[in-house]
Every structure is written in structure tokens, then in C-alpha cells.
Amino acid sequence: MGNGSSADKIDLAEALGLETALEHELIQHPLMVEGMMWGTPRYGHPEGEVYKHVQEVLANIDRLEVDATTREKLRIIALTHDTFKFQEDKRRPRNWHQHHAVLARRFLEQFIDDPILLNIVQNHDEIYYIWRDTVIYKQADRATTRMNRLLDRLCGEHQLYYLFFKCDTMTGDKNPAPIKWVEEHFPGITPIDL
Fold this sequence. Notes:
The protein has eleven helices and no strands. Helix 8 (126-136) runs antiparallel to helix 9. The chain has helices at residues 12-15, 21-28, 30-37, 50-62, 68-80, 100-108, 115-122, 126-136, 140-154, 158-169, 177-185. The protein is mainly α and 194 residues long. The N and C termini lie far apart (33 Å). It has one domain (7-185). Mean pLDDT is 94; it is low at 1-7.
């Protein structure tokens, strides 16, 4: 299990407050269990194991005033978005086909066929990379290309993407600066307080 934790000690269904049949089906999969139990404290994730981060994201989702369908979608994204970090290939140069978000999308394709939801899972970190290209690296052309590609993949579901990004970023000791930038520069959203 990557860090010596044992899934036998944690009831993930209870710890994550699973709500739907799909959530239960996902969390029973051995790869989901392994991914949830992976992790040690690190920058951005002082909580360690992925399931603890997911708990924080789910708690943020609970604070949102959204309809039941939006809430259900956000919860599916939360459960899967970082769960495949244990399989990510981080060698240099990076193989972006083995990024944890791509792996999460491939896994989730076995359970759902919603292209927007799958695209959000796959691209959940993309706006952070766009912020970094813009603000840190001063690569405006690269950032613009990435932003246009992301917007195409969202097919108008900008608010759903933004809501997940905010719920995900307001966890652990992550840098909050990208949230302010997104709220000022991401088109088609209504910023919310959390």
C-alpha cells in the first residue's frame, strides 16, 4: 500500500460517507482502495493518504448550495481525481499519458460515459498549470493555448469545473493564489464563497 497503511483498518465507505450505488461500486474496486490508501504527508497534502484529502474535498462540497445532480457529479470527481497518484509515472521527461488524472479518467470510463465529467476528472489540474504558465513562468502564449483547449473540453460546464477546482484547492496547505486568479480570469463562472 505505498505507505504501510492497511485498508483493513479503515472502512472507506464510512470514512467517505458514500451516498450512491456508483460511489459504493467505485470504492469496492481494488485499485480504488489501493489508491485511497496511498500517500504520505507532503507539500499540498499534509494529510497524507489520498482518502483523507478526498474527505476534505467532500466536506467542501457539502458546504456548497448546489442541486442534487451537481452535488453527485462533484462527489464522483472528488472520489476519483487523485486516486491514481500511486500509479503515476513521474520520471523525467514526464509521460503525460501516465498522469494520475489521465489514469483516473481511464478507470472511470468503465463506470460512466458522461464526456464532460470524464474531461473534468482528466483536466482537474489543468487550470493550475494555466495559472502557473501565466503568473509564474510568464508563458502567455502557452497559457492561452492551454486555456482554449480546456474550455473546448468543458463544453460550457465552466461553473462545475470551477466549483470542483475551488473545493479541491481549499484543502491541506495548498497555495490559494490560483483561486483568486481563476475567479478573475476564468470565463463563464460565478465566484462563490466557501
